[in-house]
Amino acid sequence: MYKYLFGPVPSRRLGMSLGIDLVPKKVCSLDCIYCEVGKTTKLTLERMEYVLFEKIKAELEDYFAKGNPDPDYFTFSGSGEPTLNSRIGDVLDFLKEKRPDVPVSVLTNGTLLYDQSVRASLLKADLVLPSLDAALQGSYDKIDVPADGLTLDKYIDGLVEFRKEFKGKIFLEIFILEGYNDSDEDIQALKDAVHRIQPDRVQLNTLDRPGTVAELEPASFELMHEIAVKLDYHDVEVIASSLHRRDLLAFRTDVEAVILETIARRPCTLDDLAAMLGLHINEINKYLDVLEGEAQIERVLLERGWFYKLKKKPKLH
Ligand code: SF4
């Protein structure tokens, strides 16, 4: 079992992706209300070697030595904001040296791109997927809860600068939350920001796992499609339903089975499952997503958070 590598996991946006976790849970520059990892416990803009480069390198060397098949992508993602790790560029260089043919993607909130050294460290990536959930200060503060000093202008200007310097692809994710960032003013401001940033693609996404605020509801596909039209951009994609994940090549039925067996014994939280099964929470989340979509499991909100349990089958008369 690795501590910093997870998967390969079936990802809605990247196929089979080997995750590389560069920060511990939960170091981030934002504390988004929809975060599926949990609440940010270290809200910061300070870059440090949160996970030592040598430790990540050792796990990758072991992964390669074991003859594992190459994933579709190596992806920096995981328990927080990966660009907060000051050695992200070194990990990227190492991957490019060892597996030059496997593309590297970076799932980032994009907030640190105002920093020239962060932009420089990502230049060798193939695909960067930053997010921007709001372009009005009030909505941004409400949804993303930024670290002190992280103004919206600084954030958007960083994305604009990065687009000018980066030769790879940029897919900008906008997370739609009904009642939070779907007003006409919000969409107009987002449209202006998107047209300034000029990403290769905009991806509209919504909640499929519980966030840190209990009452959040996913946006409907109708609303997402409406917003896609209003953005009036040449490439806008509404992310497909999570149920398609099962169709991905390496959806592991053994992992699915062990999750089902565990929660059949007693309801568990995401953290319980991660501790018991030794799997990364992001990995478990992908499977819970499919199982919930297929109505095999359900969740209940108790004092310690969301618990997952098998869904009772309706009685037949
Ligand atoms: S930026 Fe990502 S990791 Fe950080 S709080 Fe938001 S959703 Fe969670």
Overall description:
The structure is a single chain. With 317 residues, the protein is of the alpha/beta class. It has two domains: 5-242, Aldolase class I (TIM Barrel); 253-310, Arc Repressor Mutant, subunit A (Orthogonal Bundle), CATH 1.10.10. It is 35% helix and 17% strand. It has helices at residues 53-65, 88-98, 116-121, 137-144, 152-165, 184-197, 221-231, 253-265, 270-277, 281-293, and strands at residues 5-11, 15-20, 27-28, 42-43, 73-76, 104-107, 127-129, 169-175, 201-205, 236-238, 297-302, 305-310. The strands form three sheets. It has an eight-stranded mixed β-sheet, with helices on both faces. Strands 3-4 form a two-stranded parallel ribbon. Strand 1 (5-11) and strand 2 (15-20) form a beta hairpin. Helix 1 (53-65) runs parallel beside helix 2. The longest helix is centred in the middle third of the chain and has 14 residues, at 152-165. The chain is globular, with a radius of gyration of 19 Å. The termini are far apart. The model is unreliable at 242-249 (pLDDT under 50). The structure holds iron/sulfur cluster. Iron/sulfur cluster binds at residues 28, 30-32, 35, 37, 40, 80-81, 109.
